[in-house]
Amino acid sequence: MTGFEEVAGAVLVAGAQIVTVAVGGLLLVGVMRKVRSRLEGRIGPPVRQPLLDLRKLFTKQRMRPEEASWVFVAAPVVLVATAMVVVAISPLATTRPPLGQSADFFAIVFVLLLGSVSLALGALDTGTPFGGMGSSRAMTIGALAEPALLVAILAMSIPAHTSNLPVLVHMGLAHPQMIASPERILALGSFVVIILAESGRLPVDNPNTHLELTMIHEAMVLEYAGPDLGLVTLGESMRLTLLLGLLVNLLVPWGVADRSGAVSFVIGLGALAGKVALAGIAIATFEVFSGKLRLFRVPELLAGGFVLAMLGAVTAMVVR
Amino acid sequence: MTAGSSLTDHLLIERPRRAVLKLAADELVDAAAALLAAGYRLALVAAHDSHGPLRIVYLFCIGPPDQRVELHVEVRRDQPRIPSLAHLSFPAGRFEREMRDLFGIEPVGHPQPRPLVLHQHWASDWHPMRSDAGPQPPMIDDAKPYPFVNVEGPGIYEIPVGPVHAGLIEPGHFRFWVVGETIVKMKARLWFAHKGIERLFEGRDRESATALAERISGDSAVSHSLAHCLAVEEACGIEVPPRVSELRAVLLELERVYNHVADVGALCNDAGFGLANAHALTLREQLLRLNEAVTGHRLLRGGITPGRAALRSLPRTDQLREIGDRFHRIVDLARSNSIVMDRFTGTAVLTAMQAEEIGVLGVVARASGLVTDARMSHPFIDPSIDFRPARCDTGDVLARFLVRCDEVDASLGLLSDYVSREGPLAASVSDRNAEGAGYGTGIVEGWRGTVVHRVEIDGNGTLQRVKIVDPSFLTWPALPVALADTIVPDFPLVNKSFNLSYAGNDL
Fold first, then answer.
1. Smallest Cα distance from A210 to chain B, Å
2. Which residues in chain B have their CB less than 8 angstroms from residue A299's CB?
């Protein structure tokens, strides 16, 4: 294989993963809404509604608060850009993503965090009380969720002797007994809690509320409109899909392409879509029967996540 | 006159349960103090301007047995001053501030001599309820922010919300001062929806006035139109036959049920539990269709007119039982959700003492352990089943939720009683056009709380003055009190648990 073909192949893989996650992420949001609606006895909007909404947002006039500086403008772009970078190099459809050797789990977490922080800064930038309120809450939750996430990664990395994500997924395929190990189960349990918190789902945040005082994520993006809001929506759905994709590939890696080749890559994309859809349906079903925790109880939930991760890490070290 | 015993000597007993006392302004405080000490509640204060001296009526009531005492005071037009009762009763202070804005009557010695109804942009010397007020002068926009108390301290953060909100809510401006997420102080500014509805009643005939009363607050069509009709009937000396009262009671309880069902669902929704809300909304729709079958209008309009009640059909007992069963399943669903119960429990406690002093009414009062229900104290019909108002002692969101649940059960019980009584679907007094001049009061326990109307009618059957007191007017001040030490993200839940009317308050 020539160098050019290699680069072209890598670009194709990255592009395919990004497009799948971008389009699939919006459909995932649609599926989750549909599941919720049906379980509550409502019909609900069509699954493709988030796609239509996004098209509508991008055709709208650009409206920005007078006080907004470049931080406000840059935040949605940074959010989408970081999500795209991470999606491109993550082992979503194949264990050999482009630049896979640099897809370190810790690095990925921090790149994603860059997006969260820029959104929080964008919310603060306009000086409206809701933006500040949302940012403060989101950062509090982030500050509690990140340590748990880092320890969870540690727990998964110890037995594999690496925190490189493609390798972690590949080892799951090669040695399935590693997935069933207690440290991996504990760490993934913690990961689920963190995904719910980071993506603003129940019981941490209510994505459907119109009550501005209870909002966390929605309060941050209250000042965004039109194409800017479209970018925020896109970025958020990509992040949710990415996190769920990593979760399912660490839990049930089967279907992920473990060798190069167009056919296995396409199968990998299909498997990813199926597994993430199932995970999304599971979350939506859970949300129907859940409620929103009192804000001051959220730290307790995240502490629970941290304990799970910690137990996983300790188990991993003791078992060695 | 200094003591309660001598007060009764001065009373002019006009009719059973109604007494009137005409006083000079300087006798007012003692008389009011005596009545309040005897356990009376100040239900209404209404000023009147018919070109002569200004007349102010204080309505005190107590029950059971149903007793209403009116104090009448006249003040000179060029010196509109009355001694303030604010130090005796908090509700009196609210009424006086309202009167100060709308009539320009100065309550002397009021601790908060600030505008209440008219915001800063209104001309301060223009009093819209005066007979010689003339057209409204233009608003004076001084481009300054609304004056508000300044709360300062390390880490205090101010959050202004509204009057335009993110959802379909009526206008109200709330200002929070918080440390972190904990509310240090909250102030509500209402009256953005002030329509001058009391003025709209003046000069109307009885029929069109009832239609207007139904529209004071959309969700309280029956409560307000019934209170209005009771007041008109007392003013004109009309005695309605028992069947009229039975049919009216059916409507009153139907209104309570459909609103409480919606509130129970909405409370769950604000705790993030959309499942219970979806089911509650389905049940509400079923109830609205029942309302339409009963009156021809989904919000129960058109069934009540002075001296008359006319329905299209009555709910069947098996329908009521099915509604009760479905409602119980929703309540069980909510109560079995530990997250929802955790959100409700201990949130925004309004103690019995606070509730008593502020003079709150209805669901909120009963959830704080007060015994107040106009269906007991001022009944217009005797239920044949044993009726006791629901009560809860804890005063938190959970208590207000549970009181609503219990009231739905009680209302369904009352409805079964009323619909099982034999009689025609329409009934009225024999001479509906009986004309009498005078004044009367109507007191009704609406679904939010006690609604009070007082009307004055002239010999032609034309309304001269209508004073409306929605329970929200007296209960709104309790919301900031209950919020102390609550966290900001719980405010929407607390507000929903009070669920006070903006339209009924702003008038």
1. 5
2. none
Assess contact for B7 and B31: CB atoms under 8 A. Answer: yes
Six token digits for residue B187: 């102030």
pLDDT tens, residue by residue, A28-75: 999 999 999 999 989 999 999 999 999 999 999 998 988 889 999 999
Of A172-181, B179-188, B217-226, give the range with the top mean pLDDT: B217-226
Beta bridge partners of B75: B54
ipTM of the complex: 0.88
Instruction: List CB contacts (< 8 A) between A130 and chain B.
Output: 159
**Closest-CA distance of chain A to residue B254, Å:** 25
Q: What is the pTM of this model?
A: 0.90
d(CA B409, CA B413): 6
Decide if B129 contacts B99 (C-beta within 8 A).
Answer: no
Least Cα distance to B400 among B446, B358, B449, B365 occurs for B365
Question: Does residue B5 carry a pLDDT above 50?
Answer: no
Assigned token pair, B451: 């609604």
Q: How far apart are CA B312 and CA B291, in angstroms?
A: 10
Instruction: Please list, in sequence order, all residues whose beta carbon lies within 8 angstroms of the beta carbon of residue A310, skipping any fewer than 6 positions away.
Output: A151
Measure A212 CA to nearest chain B CA, in Å.
Answer: 7
Three-class SS state of B71? strand
Residue A274 to residue A255: CA distance in whole angstroms: 10
Indicate yes or no: CB of B166 within 8 angstroms of CB of A295. Answer: no
Please report, as a single letter, which amino acid is at residue B59. Answer: L
Secondary structure element (H or E) that encloses residue A80, with its range: helix A70-89
Out of A40, A132, A210, closest to residue B274 by CB? A40
Which residues neighbour A131 within 8 Å (Cβ) at sequence distance 6 or greater?
A123, A124, A125, A219, A220, A222, A223
Domain extent for A88: 3-319
What total number of domains does chain A contain? 1
Residue B409: which of B378, B379, B385 has the closest Cα?
B385
